[in-house]
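Marked as duplicate of an earlier ticket. Keeping the data here for the record.
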Amino acid sequence: MKKFMNCSIALIVLLFACGKTNSTSNEVLPPLNLTVNAIVATDNSGNVSFTASATNATTYEYDFGNGVFQIVPSGIVTYKYTNSGTYTVNVIAKNSIGQTISKSIQITLSASTALVWSDEFDVPGAPNTSKWGYDIGTGSGGWGNNELQYYTNRSQNAVVSGGTLKINLLKETFSGSNYTSARLLTKDKFSFKYGKIEVRAKLPAGLGTWPAIWMLGSNITSAGWPACGEIDIMEHRGSEINKIWGTLHYPGRSGANPVGGNVMINNATTEFHKYAVEWNTSSIKFYVDDSLYFTFANSTSVPFNHNFFILLNVAMGGNFGGSVDPNFSSATMEVDYVRVYQ
């Protein structure tokens, strides 16, 4: 009897030991020893090759430091940055049950851009119809800003001569309006998402004048305004000579409640200046003559992550242009070029 009991106890101990061994072998261990390496391409392409590795990790989540995230099961990925700069890259390594370890590194790179679209306005006559169309009609009736001009496609209001596009705002009676002008746009001809747009222009003078260089979301027909988004690269009004505005409109920030900034410059109406926007997934930056004056934090919660088209116009009066000089006769915005880089 004693011998039988000893055998039974031995069997129970053996079974318990086996069970304990199986439990240990099935245990999921946390990720450890995360390393992250980056190789920046030397050709200014913006390409960076990343390699992340951690013991017990099954996948890696990259935050590239510009608002872009990517899940990479292998930990090895090449990412192309569109803008030069210094970025903090964070990598989270995860195991099969969601335990994590993270590590951040900094990279500095130069990313060159290429000219993808432009109009140099070198051919005299009407604006190039392969690049520009026209909005026709009254600002007050069609676009809700209570402007006073009638937009036409006549050569009196928009013409290329002497190497510049001239948009002429004229005091004249036309189709029920007391002023005429032009509003050119690249809708259905050219649009782009992200990059840099630069316009060199000389602005009109005169109380009530309202020149604008701007962009609208290409989905405006389906989404409507302001859901499509609006990026005002440059606005100016004759009542505040030399004050340049850069603004954005979107739901909750439409009409007289935009987000933006302004800067004072010299000789806006007598000399040419460069007005530019740099636009990517994480920011929209506004410049005059290569000097940054306002930065907007872009994100997926605002409508600035799809294609936009370009507009050039000169309005008269309205909600922004304000009071008009009763002695006004004419004014011109001259545009030397429009260039888009990506």
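See parent ticket for discussion. The helical segments are 2-25, 139-142, 220-223, 318-321.
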